[in-house]
Every structure is written in structure tokens, then in C-alpha cells.
Amino acid sequence: MERVCNFNPGPSAIPLEVLQQAKEELLNFRGSGISVMETSHRSKEYEAVHNEAQEKIKKILGIGDDFKVLFLQGGASLQFVMVPMNYLDKDKRADYIITGYWSERALKEAKRFGTINIAATTEQDKKYTRIPKQSELKLDPSAVYVHLTSNNTIFGTQWANFPTTGNIPLVADMSSDFLSKKFDPKPFGLMYAGAQKNLGPAGVTVVVIRDDFLAKANPDLPSVLTYHTHAKENSLYNTPPCFAVYVVYLFMEWVLDHGGLDGMEKRNQEKGGLLYGAIDKYPGYYTCPVDKDSRSLMNVVFRLPTEQLEDAFVKQGKAAGFLGLKGHRSVGGIRVSMYNTIGPEVIKELVCFMEDFAKKNG
Amino acid sequence: MERVCNFNPGPSAIPLEVLQQAKEELLNFRGSGISVMETSHRSKEYEAVHNEAQEKIKKILGIGDDFKVLFLQGGASLQFVMVPMNYLDKDKRADYIITGYWSERALKEAKRFGTINIAATTEQDKKYTRIPKQSELKLDPSAVYVHLTSNNTIFGTQWANFPTTGNIPLVADMSSDFLSKKFDPKPFGLMYAGAQKNLGPAGVTVVVIRDDFLAKANPDLPSVLTYHTHAKENSLYNTPPCFAVYVVYLFMEWVLDHGGLDGMEKRNQEKGGLLYGAIDKYPGYYTCPVDKDSRSLMNVVFRLPTEQLEDAFVKQGKAAGFLGLKGHRSVGGIRVSMYNTIGPEVIKELVCFMEDFAKKNG
């Protein structure tokens, strides 16, 4: 069987060039005579990969030495805990903006550590089918940070422009759209992203933390749970997930080779234009429940007239080589996850399939 | 350059057959048309790997359904925290047996959560060059558990027989000798092991927990930090480190193909006989500081007459294709880490090198 078009929501597609390179040197990494999986994390060979991966992420984001890039474990789920554990206590407050399932998960953990103000939620009115507007935000002037989820994988929404919060640092779960478009990183005290969408394999979490925000983290925590440890030890306090970091390194090289954030933004906008164009071309047949200005370029969700047609769409799609089209079980419908790896040519193929399907089953 | 003899202390050698299999299907996992790195953790393809890896570990250990096998992240360092967080509070007590650096790290974190009794330590008299005897243990009858480190990578010591603790469950950091020999698992409430020595690549931690001990874990913790979450969700609460689990699966298949714990014990005893035999054959030239009944079969440490000779040994060893012979920076000397992957034939080659070196530089 040939390789297929992979629209899995995460873990998700990794560029073929990255996989090929990993395959080629799997038994003998950079001429060392061993696999990168077998290489000591204290060796110069691994440290070069580790440091180069950090440098590439900084270069892609356009950030300087006032930010640190950390490679942690435990996914966004552990960051839901580490963020409030490091920054809150019973006398401290934070703002959370709730735009879906993952924001709710972050909120639930944060409530254990401090007083949380829900600065906005789009649950009630339209069940998370939009991102709140700046004018809706009820920000707490005494908040230590404002937390948001930059892209919502289940509901198919994404912040087109990040909110303004004055001097209060933004903290963002960017797991599902990190490095997918240009943005100003300066307002962010901390960004975190599980690798398995836009960065590499599951098992490493990238945390980008601004030095002045790092300085405010609680140092009096278990060693592995304070950001100070990992920043001070360059994420080598304990053994990092070396192979996952290595694939991130290769993936970041691919991003730079494809134009960095400029290239990714262009690529993702083209894909969005193609796919939302196809949906909007068949109103009443394909229906996207998301407000137009909140549409995600990473996870495109839409419905067909009936669940039977949706099942047929997923089934026939799979037979045609399109994997992972089923919407999240909590909302149903169709979901096309098209992170950085997916090229416009793949979306063009999918659009042909959609047009064909609509004509045959209209 | 050919592949070399890899004595790295961790991440360490992985069986060539495991790496070859991983390489072979890196672009197309089990005919799915995608890499295992790109496969959804909710797919039947990945779940089969996940469940089969658990089953193989249970089969190797000879444990039944009263134990659960979890795949977590964060290494032993996070287990140093999760264990006391789940089992202690200011009114609860635990015993810790201190046999080296890693026990000290575990102790340091545990002290944050409850009252810790140091049941024994071998630091004072001979700087961790032995394992305490049963008669030395001052066990607290009210302890919730007794924690020990089964093998000490830096000091080259290993428990030949685990201590008897009556009804109090043992909790063990087995990161550096898990699945290397036969032992009775029943007294263990919980065993944990970072994968990067005897199981696979860094980035996954195997936790084996007995149901009655699991039942006593604190459920009122952040979701990702209570054992209940991971046991209930079969380690799929959040995205697991899928690729690392997949390599563990292949590695466990290799262990079973090589005779399970019987085969590993025989293999490791043979290696120990060869290497300690060579050391003891040159008394005054090669010196192992460890008491004979505490000698590790995983990490063999020894000294040469001078540091200059030790440097020459490491350098000439490397040139001869032996990687990772340098002792830990805190203790110096030579260290040969020979986890399950390393075969007796490799140790025979090393012994030839040692004999040759002693004759030339004696």
C-alpha cells in the first residue's frame, strides 16, 4: 500500500522528507555508529541536535535571547497544571478565555491553584462556534496572566488576531496551530505546544517562555515541575525525549526550507481558501457551523445533510486514500485536520473528491 | 562507519533487530500507509501496539490482572514526585532506603509531601559502595510504602535480593535494571522505570502498579498527576508517546524471543562473570570499589592505578569501537553499562581489550 493523505487530528502527518531522513540515519546517526535513540543526552552529538532545534524554533518565531525554548514531557495536559502551579496561589488571579474542550481542561486544573476569572466564553450562545471579540473580554486588571487556546481542534475555530491585554502577559496553548502563521510573540509570557500536530511525534512539548515571565515562576516546587529547573538546565535536568526532539529538529529544518512562518501562512491560507471555498460552493450540502471570522485554517469542520451521508463520505474518502475525516465523537460530522505538513495539492485532491461526492449524492 | 559497541549509561543500546524493524516500517506502519509517528492514538493500529506492549510486559514479569501497566511521560524524575504526591500527606509516613544519587533525588521530592524515615543509607561508611543488609533496615511499621532504587548506575551497586517488608508494599525505581533478572513481583505495590536503559528510547516511563495499591492513590489531584486517571484511561487520557511505546513493544518482543526473564538473567550473569572475572584477574590494576555481594550486573564500575591510565583506557577503548566507558563525572573511573541489549560476545571483546591494555600498560 502506498502512503495515504493523512488528515488525522493528532498525532498527524509529518513531512515525508523528515521521515525519510529519520529512516536513513536510524541505525547510524551522523556517523556515530549508533542510533540517535541510543545516544547519550550528554553527548555532543545529541546536544547539537537539542540546541539546533531550539535555535531553529527561535529563528522561525523571530524571537531573541529574552525567550527560552524548553523541551518538556507530558503534553499540553501537564502544562494545564504547570502553568497555574508555577504562577498562582490562593491570593493570585488569572484570566481564562474559554473557547472549547481544551480551554475547559486548562480551566479545570487552574482552579485548583488560584482564583480564576472567566474573561469570556463562547460556550453558551453558539456552543463554541466562534472566537470572542476583543470588546467581549472582561479582563481582570490584577490577573497574573491571560490564558487562551489559540486553535480549537474539535470545534474548528482559531484566533485570527490575538487579543490585547495591556501589560498582562498572554499564556497560550498553541498545540494545534503553533508555527502555522505570523504573529507578534512579544505579548506572550509563555506559549506551549504538544509536538504531535505541527512539530513532530507525540512525546515532547515545546514551551517558549519569556525571561521576565520565567522570573515570576515559583521556584519552590518539585524540581521537575518548576520552569526554573528546565530553563536553568537547558531542558537536560532529566533525560529528554531525545528521538522526539530529533524529529522536531528535522521538522523545523523543513519549516525553514519552506519559507518559515511566511511560507506556512501562505500555504495554510491557500489550503483554507480551497477547502472553505469548496464548502461555500455547495451551501445546504456542505455546512460549516463556524462563524466566518473564526474559521480555523488547521481543523476544518463541516456537516453534510444527514449522518448517513457523513458516514458514506468518511467511508468513500478512506477508500480514495483520505485518512482521518471523521469529526470528533463529541460533535460528529466531518473534520479535515490540515496542519503545516499537508500541502495545497492534497487539499486540491480532497476538493475534487468533495465536488464529485456532492454531485453524485446531491 | 560501522555500528559500535555502545556502553552508554542511558539512553543506551537498543537491539539491532528492533532498530531494523522500526526502520523498515518507518514510512508505512503495518500497511496503514503512514508512519506509526503519524498514527492517531485512538486508532485500532496504535491501540493494538499499546495493548500488546502492556501484555508482553505482564507476560515477562509473570503478573496477572491484579497489576496494571501504565505508559507515562516525565521519566523517573516525575515518578519521584508522583509517588509521594499520590500516597503521602502531612499525616502519612514512608520509608526510603538510600543507596545513591537517584535515591537521594527521590527522597528530596518525597520530603515535600509527608514524613520520611530513612530506613537505611549506605552513604556514610563507604560512600554508597554497597547495598544495606536486611538486618540494617530500620523500618517504620506505619509506613505507607518502602521506597528503594533497585540498581545504582553511578556507584555500580544492585540489590541481589529485595528486602522483606512484611505487609508494607515496596515501591521501586527500577529504571536501570527492569526486566534484567527473575524476581518476585508480588511484594511490589509499584515499580517504575524510564525506558532508556532496558526498554527502548527515552520519553516513556513504564509504571507497574498493583490494584490494591492503586486503590490507595489520592484521586483528588490534577488529572495528569494521579495514577487513577492513567489506570482508568489505559494510559490514553492524553496522547501517549506513541513512537516510544512502539519501540518498547518491539523491544519486549525481543526479550520474549530471548527467553524472557530467564534468558535475561542468564545473559546478564554470564556478562557479569566475564567482566568481574577480568577485573578480579588483575588485582591492583583493575579495582572494583563495590562489595562483592552488591556488585551490579548492569553498571560495572572500576578504577585503574592512575587517572592518566583511565583516560588512556577510555580513549583507546573508543578507538577500538567501545563507546561510553567513562565513569560518571561525580565519581570518575571507568563504567561499563551493559543492559539487556548487550550480549556476552560484546563483553568478551571488551575483556580481550582489558587484558591487552593491562599487559601493555601494567
Note down, in words, how this protein is organized.
Two copies of one chain form a homodimer. Chain A has helices at 16-24, 44-61, 75-87, 101-110, 123-126, 211-214, 227-232, 242-257, 260-281, 307-319, 344-361; strands at residues 5-6, 67-72, 93-98, 115-121, 143-149, 151-152, 157-158, 170-173, 188-194, 205-210, 299-302, 322-323, 334-337. With 362 residues, the first copy, chain A, is of the alpha/beta class. Chain A has two domains: 16-257, 3-Layer(aba) Sandwich (Aspartate Aminotransferase, domain 2), CATH 3.40.640; 260-361, Aspartate Aminotransferase, domain 1. In chain A, helix 9 (260-281) runs parallel beside helix 11 (344-361). The interface between A and B is large, with 67 and 67 residues.
Short description:
2 copies of one chain form a homodimer. Chain A has 362 residues and is α/β, with parallel strands linked by helices.
Question: Which of globular, elongated, flat, extended, rod-shaped describes the shape of chain A?
Answer: globular
Overall tally of domains of chain A: 2
Q: DSSP strand (E) fraction of chain A?
A: 15-25%
Q: Please outline the major beta sheet of chain A.
A: 7 strands, mixed
N-to-C CA distance of chain A: 31 Å
Q: Number of DSSP helices of chain A?
A: 11
- Give the beta-strand count of chain A: 13
- CATH top level assignment of the largest domain in chain A: Alpha Beta
Oligomer: homodimer
- What series of H and E elements makes up the topology of chain A? EHHEHEHEHEEEEEEHHHHEHEEH
Q: If you compute it from the alpha carbons, what radius of gyration of chain A comes out, rounded to the nearest whole angstrom? A: 21 Å
Mean pLDDT of chain A: 97
Strand order of the largest sheet of chain A: 2-10-9-8-5-3-4
Largest interface: A-B, 67 and 67 residues
User: Which structural class should the secondary elements of chain A be placed in?
Assistant: alpha/beta
CATH topology of the largest domain in chain A: Aspartate Aminotransferase, domain 2
Query: What's the architecture of the largest domain in chain A, going by CATH?
Result: 3-Layer(aba) Sandwich
Which ranges of chain A are low-confidence, i.e. pLDDT below 50, for 5 or more consecutive residues? none
CATH homology superfamily of the largest domain in chain A: Type I PLP-dependent aspartate aminotransferase-like (Major domain)
Helix % of chain A is: 25-40%
